[in-house]
Amino acid sequence: MKEEYYVTVRNNPLNPATLIENTVFAIDLLLFGTFCFLSFLDKEYISSLLFFALAATGLFLLYQNNAPIAHATKRKVILRKYFKKYTFEFSDLSSTSFSFCKTNLNFCGKNFSIPSYYLGAEFFLKLLKIKNSPFATEEGVSALKQYIQEHACKSALLLKPKPDTVPGLTSSKIGGIPYWPSAKEYPTDEGGKKMHLLCQLNLGECKESCGLLPQSGILQFFISPSEGDAYGMNWEAPTEQKNWRIVFHKQAEEGLSADQIKEIVAPKSEYAESPILKSTALEFSLSPSYIKSDDYKMDQLVKDAAKEITGKDFEGSIYDLLGSEDMNIYAAEVYKMLEETENYMLGYPSFVQYDVRSYMPKEEAAYFDTLLLHLDSLSADGKIMCWGDMGCANFLMNSEALKRCDFSKVFYTWDCT
Predict the structure, then answer these.
(1) Is 125:117 a contact under the CB 8 Å cutoff?
(2) Burial (CB count within 10 angstroms: exposed 0-12, middle 13-18, buried 19+), residue 31
(3) Can you tell me the distance from the alpha carbon of 228 to that of 152, in angstroms, rounded to the nearest whole number?
(4) Helix axes 331-338 and 138-151, enclosed angle (nearest 10)
(5) What are the E-state strand segments in 93-176?
(6) Nearest-10 crossing angle of helices 45-66, 16-41
(7) Cα 242–234–180 angle (5° rounding)?
């Protein structure tokens, strides 16, 4: 069976320079080919040979300009130079250095011209880099995983859904009727509308505090039903709790019933603008959390890891280091370890687009060092909530403020694809 190619590199037929070149070469072939034929009929053999040479040059240039210039298969690299092809095994690349500058590729001691605008040229280069990388081996990936486990691992509290359990008034849950003391004013948005419960966490149900959470009390997250697709988020002021709110009750008032609280909370008719699809009970579960690929500190971690493991400097993202799973079969091990699609507290935040702290001043980014809550559309196969187009929400705060149960400065953000 013919081996499938990873990538084929060829000229871009829509490039203006390519269109002009192909036109000139085609005219050369047609014009001098015609002259060659007519000269041969007139028995002008010397002229015929000259026109044949010129027509052959046009044909050669058309071939040179349009035939694939490089292939990369699962095991081989095939490079063309004029009519000759050079084949290299990926297994031979461990001692080979190559560079890609403007239009020249130096590969295994031979120079090949591959213009950067050629189709597949950028992907081809990335593939060569990955295949020539120590992190394209089981040993290299194992070393990287160990480095991440030692330098970028935190304890997280997974919020596992309990779909078969009816959530109680004071229990941990997504959506539903919140616990609310009768003498306390219910949270409203800036338009005066009552907010609805996004998530309620009874910390007394959690056996692990991770040194940050109180061992009792009820932590609640509310969002406004009046902000359309924003779900209460405000990019201009992401820490101002005008259309969302965090409330912490140190202890629950006894004797309250769901019927009593229904008269206080937001009516169900206002739940239309909520990301919540179904109210669901939750239970806590301790789990390790590793730094995510989109974390603003990830590039520095990758740089440090590569230096310690290989002794060489590296600049770029973890995707530059490992490549895609198609390029590097071992990359999946790392990506799977970093991936998290559950709802959880603490640990490392996960974003769909980018880490919001990437665009903050250094001191401000350092302040939001703790993930208070992560809510993910993919949790429970997407049956609990949906943030826009299957996105996720994050509430970030400072660890010292969390220890004091001070929720006045929390960064609320959500994003989707």
Answers:
(1) no
(2) middle
(3) 37
(4) 20
(5) 99-101, 104-107, 110-113, 153-162, 173-174
(6) 160
(7) 35
- What CA–CA distance (Å, rounded) separates 370 from 156? 11
Q: What is the largest CA-CA distance in the chain?
A: 114
- Report CA-CA distances (Å) from 231 to 101, 189, 190, 393: 47, 11, 13, 10
Q: Which residues contact 31 (CB under 8 A, 6 or more apart)?
A: 55
C-alpha to C-alpha distance for 348 and 340, rounded to whole angstroms: 10
Using CA atoms, how far apart are residues 242 and 329, in angstroms rounded to an integer?
Answer: 47
Backbone angles phi, psi at 20, to 5 degrees: -65, -45
What whole-number distance in Å separates Cα of residue 178 and Cα of residue 44?
A: 99
Which residue from 272, 267, 277 is spatially nearest to 229, judged by alpha carbons?
A: 272
Q: Show Cβ contacts of residue 203 under 8 Å, excluding neighbours closer than 6 positions.
A: 209, 213, 214, 215, 216, 217, 218, 219
SS3 190: coil
pTM recorded for the entire structure: 0.78
Instruction: Please state the rounded mean pLDDT for residues 226-246.
Output: 86
E strand or H helix at 141, and its extent?
Answer: helix 138-151
Q: Are 198 and 410 in contact (CB under 8 A)?
A: no
The one-letter code for the residue type at 22 is N
Q: How far is CA 316 from CA 300, 303, 321, in A?
A: 9, 8, 7
Write down the residue that tokens 């206002």 correspond to.
270
Span 273-320, pLDDT tens digits = 788 888 999 999 999 999 999 999 999 999 999 999 988 888 889 988
Residue type, 104: N
Contact 314, 302 (CB under 8 A): yes
- The predicted-structure confidence for 47-90, as pLDDT tens digits, reads as follows 999 999 999 999 999 999 999 988 888 778 888 888 888 888 77
Decide: residue 2, CB within 10 A, 0-12 exposed, 13-18 middle, 19+ buried. exposed
Structure-token pair, residue 305: 């890891």
